[in-house]
Amino acid sequence: MDGRREDDRLARDQEEILRDPYEVLGVDRTASSAELQKAYRKLAKALHPDLNPGDKSAEDKFKEVGAAYELLSDTEKRARFDSGEIDASGAERPQRRYYRDFATGDDGHPYTSASGFADFADTNDALAELLRRAQHARANRQGQDLHYGMSIDFVEWNTGASKRLTLPDGSTLDVTIPPGFIEGQTLRLKGKGAPGFGTGGPGDALIEVEVLPDPRFAREGDNILLEMPISLAEAVLGGEIRVPTPAGEVIMSVPRGSNTGTTLRLKGKGAPRRGGGSGDELVKLKIILPRAPDPELEAFVSNWAKGKAFNPREGVSP
Amino acid sequence: MTMSKQEFLQSAGIDTQTVEFWLEQQWLLPEPTPAGPSFSDREIARARFIVDLKSTFQVNDEAIDVILHLVDQIHGLRYAIAQLRSCIPRPSAESSRDGNR
Lengths: 318, 101
What we know:
The complex is a heterodimer of chains A (318) and B (101). With 318 residues, chain A is of the alpha+beta class. Chain A is built from eleven helices and eleven strands. Chain A has helices spanning 2-17, 21-25, 33-47, 58-73, 75-82, 99-103, 126-138, 154-159, 232-237, 295-302, 305-309, and strands at 146-152, 161-166, 172-177, 186-189, 205-211, 218-220, 223-231, 239-245, 248-254, 263-266, 281-288. In chain A, strands 6-7-11-10 form a four-stranded mixed β-sheet. With 101 residues, chain B is mainly α. In chain B, 67% of the residues lie in helices and 4% in strands. Chain B contains five helices and two strands; from the N terminus they run E-H-H-E-H-H-H. The chains are: A alpha+beta (318), B mainly alpha (101).
């Protein structure tokens, strides 16, 4: 029974392919080539499968119209057909896959637009939720943001730095860290993330920058702390000393009569501050005696009556 | 099947200048890869559709923009309808008998 049904179908297909091409195009046998073209265009526009994505029969009809036009638009073939030398099947076209066959699949692809129903998806019901899912599956999505981490040292932090980051896939990314970059902030490199979907464009690269501690400096908020050794002579008489800062060395004046624990402030030499400016560098002085005992110093101190009379532990211990 | 731009040009029967213009217009959106855009059968089918619009239907470039946008919306809607349909429970044989009663 199935065999007979198959035969019927084949016979029907045959019959359809062999329909009179003039009849297919709806023109007289005397139609001019301009009339043929006009009739063909009108039908093709109406029947193109990609303009009728939901009409399964459009493809066969479109093919039939195309075949009829191909036969009749060729003067020689048309003459042979008119004289009965060839039949309408001579102009059959090869199989073709239409765009609509690729456009309705389940996999997301970049062309389909959700702008025909985005407003329905914007409401607050169960239907909207389903539509939103369809919207997300089909929308031109921006590529994912990719996260990276890198570290800079204190000096780079203050002066700014250009660093090259090697990504897992072997490619590289040049990262410019501006001077005064705020620690904990993430650098965003536009368009350096994963490639997007369709017109969505690539995502961004987000780079978390860690500032490595520097053994010379301690941190206290925006301020950085430095313990600076000075000699007894510098402490007593004052003088100029060279002090390291993250931005390089500076000359600092040590006032006369400075002590261990005296803290001097170098304004604006600290860490960059959110909202502009920088913290300060606090230089804490520490008197260091000469490494080897010095007879001259010993002799001076043993004869130094005022020095002996001074009790540095007043109020601390009796 | 994916292919390079050169293979795509051969399969779709269009020239480099044409495809560059189409890419610029975003009529074709091949998948970006580190080795350059990767074209698929979908791009070929879409290219043939554009060729039909231009050559057979004599549609100008401005109108192709509009047509593709509308066609893409139709596919978006068709997909949304398909999604909705898949969520609606189909009536079982029993319940449809009940309905006929």
